[in-house]
Design goal:
By secondary structure, this protein is mainly alpha-helical. 65% of the residues lie in helices and 5% in strands. The protein is built from 7 helices and 3 strands. The N and C termini lie far apart (72 Å). The mean pLDDT is 84.
Length: 208
């Protein structure tokens, strides 16, 4: 199950990055390392099986540049293959970006979804943020309970580590509260603007 979940995160990351720009495999690896490396140890060995699967599904295509005429000694060098998103790939990406369930609230899932929030509908963004906050609040309860049970039995360094973990989660919850407040305010502003626009577009009664 964990492997399948990780594969879904990698698929979203690859399709999202290729939506922004076609890339060579090397550049894609670098960008994935920046994106996923923040949330987990990214395995380069998992990229090429993922690309192969996306190619088989028709979600991406390989663009092989035309081979220049080169001396025989250099003909064994491989051309750089550029990976591009297809129309089906864009459709699949849109589908993945509407998913706001528990997988999008976990550490690596949330990080990748958040990276592509600019391409995500406002209502989906809000559901993911609220789901992430709910997941972290559960984690906070668990960490606090563990601290209360073990505080008297652990050494000062272990206690410092546990407190650091607690503070990190509390800090992220505060950050999420700010983001959720901002999202709600922007959505309310958008709804108000739409209502005002509808009123302005209503036919006005002419006086006799």
């Amino acid at each position: 199950m964990a492997g399948k979940k990780g594969a879904g995160v990698l698929e979203l990351a690859v399709l999202g990055l290729l939506h922004e720009s076609p890339m060579h495999g090397y550049e894609l690896r670098k960008q994935l390392n920046i994106l996923l490396g923040m949330f987990r140890a990214f395995s380069y060995g998992s990229l090429y099986p993922c690309l192969k699967l996306l190619l088989a599904k028709g979600l991406i295509v390989e663009d092989r540049p035309q081979e220049p005429i080169v001396p025989l000694a250099l003909q064994s060098r491989r051309s750089k293959i550029v990976y591009k998103l297809t129309a089906d790939g864009k459709e699949r990406l849109e589908q993945l970006l509407t998913e706001a369930g528990p997988a999008a609230w976990e550490d690596e899932g949330f990080g990748v979804h958040f990276a592509f929030f600019s391409h995500t509908r406002a209502d989906v963004r809000l559901r993911i943020l609220e789901g992430r906050r709910s997941r972290l609040e559960e984690r906070l309860e668990s960490v606090r309970a563990a601290l209360a049970r073990t505080r008297e039995r652990v050494d000062s360094y272990t206690l410092e580590l546990q407190n650091h973990g607690l503070e990190s989660v509390e800090r992220e919850v505060r950050w999420l509260n700010e983001l959720i407040g901002r999202e709600r305010a922007e959505q309310e502003q958008a709804r108000t603007s739409e209502r005002n626009q509808s009123i302005q577009n209503m036919p006005r009664e002419t006086g006799r």
